[in-house]
């Protein structure tokens, strides 16, 4: 069984990693770069399975694959960003399950880097090397990154895999110690095939969701979740830009009272794509889409959401298209 069979649309990455295994030239550290949702984590897990099963008898390989899948292999450590809450570190999944909400995103903390050092301080127990995967490595603060740098300089009998959107998102000293493995966004057809194969045909057929995803099946699934969080009646009202100040004010109030901040940000993106596709053949009738981008920046700057939406939707009303349709 080849664990890379679960990864689709990344032939270059698979070839680079398989050649490293075939030639037994494993780098001390790898940097998997690319957009979220295109297979970086699938590739990291598959490569870890093959590394830990390397030179192991065939009858043991299947068990090793299962242990890595469950993240309970003694020589495997998967590290992901965490929140700090009441003296405990919680992953994004754990925080959501606990009902915790945070304005700042989770991050890789210096305590986690120290745990990696302790993990690698002992020799591997069941494999010829240990494997550490650091998910969203770009969320490390400078102190954590500097601590990791010391580990990369002397990894011992281990291979580290860092996952990040780009090399620019990490310290250059970290990047220079890693072999870069690029991952690319998928073509629209290929992304649709992957979504349909996983039972998400409706998402694959949604032009707006696919446009937002921009070649990332994972982003398409997240977009579908965000869309499901918005009441259908509200989406129906927003399908066409408001044409009167009263309608704009009521819509702004409903958005502010109904949707959380993260969903409001996503809605701006959704409206940009929706209106752009709707008025693609007649751009003169399109509302001022730049107003939506300004609204995004205002929300990110913690401006009062209701005020942001009122100003944005009122601009639609004052647009020549809206005035002509009254």
UniProtKB/TrEMBL annotation:
What Gene3D superfamilies does this protein's entry cite?
P-loop containing nucleotide triphosphate hydrolases
Question: EC number(s) of the enzyme?
Answer: 2.7.7.7
Molecular function as annotated in GO: DNA-directed DNA polymerase activity
**Superkingdom as given in the UniProt entry:** Bacteria
Q: Is-annotated flag, keyword Ribosomal protein?
A: no
- Protein name, please? DNA polymerase III subunit delta
Question: What organism is recorded for this protein?
Answer: Spirulina subsalsa FACHB-351
InterPro entries hit by this protein? DNA_Rep/Repair_Clamp_Loader, P-loop_NTPase
Q: What NCBIfam families does this protein map onto?
A: PRK07399.1 (NF005638)
Which keywords belong to this entry?
A: Nucleotidyltransferase, Transferase
């Amino acid at each position: 069984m080849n664990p890379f069979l679960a990864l689709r649309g990344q032939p270059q990455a698979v070839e680079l990693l398989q050649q490293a295994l075939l030639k037994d030239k494993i780098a001390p550290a790898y940097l998997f770069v690319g957009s979220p949702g295109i297979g970086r984590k699938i590739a990291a897990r598959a490569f870890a399975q093959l590394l830990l099963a390397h030179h192991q008898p065939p009858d043991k390989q299947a068990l090793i694959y299962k242990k890595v899948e469950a993240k309970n292999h003694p020589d495997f450590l998967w590290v992901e960003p965490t929140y700090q809450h009441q003296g405990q570190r919680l992953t994004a999944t754990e925080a959501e399950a606990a009902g915790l909400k945070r304005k700042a995103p989770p991050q890789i903390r210096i305590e986690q880097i120290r745990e990696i050092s302790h993990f690698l301080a002992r020799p591997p127990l069941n494999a010829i090397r240990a494997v550490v995967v650091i998910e969203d490595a770009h969320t490390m603060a400078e102190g954590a990154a500097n601590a990791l740098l010391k580990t990369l300089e002397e990894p011992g009998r281990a291979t580290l895999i860092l996952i990040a959107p780009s090399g620019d998102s990490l310290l250059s000293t970290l990047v220079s110690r890693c072999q870069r493995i690029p991952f690319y966004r998928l073509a629209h057809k290929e992304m649709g095939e992957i979504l349909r194969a996983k039972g998400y045909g409706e998402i694959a057929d949604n032009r707006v969701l696919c446009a937002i995803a921009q070649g990332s099946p994972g982003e398409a699934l997240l977009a579908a979740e965000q869309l499901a969080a918005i009441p259908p009646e509200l989406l129906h009202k927003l399908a066409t830009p408001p044409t009167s100040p009263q309608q704009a004010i009521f819509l702004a109030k409903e958005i502010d009272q109904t949707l959380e901040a993260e969903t409001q940000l996503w809605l701006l993106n959704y409206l940009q794509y929706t209106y752009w596709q709707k008025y693609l053949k007649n751009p003169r009738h399109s509302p001022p889409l730049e107003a939506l981008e300004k609204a995004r920046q205002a929300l990110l700057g913690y401006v009062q959401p209701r005020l942001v939406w009122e100003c944005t939707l009122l601009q639609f009303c004052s647009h020549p298209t809206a005035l002509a349709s009254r």
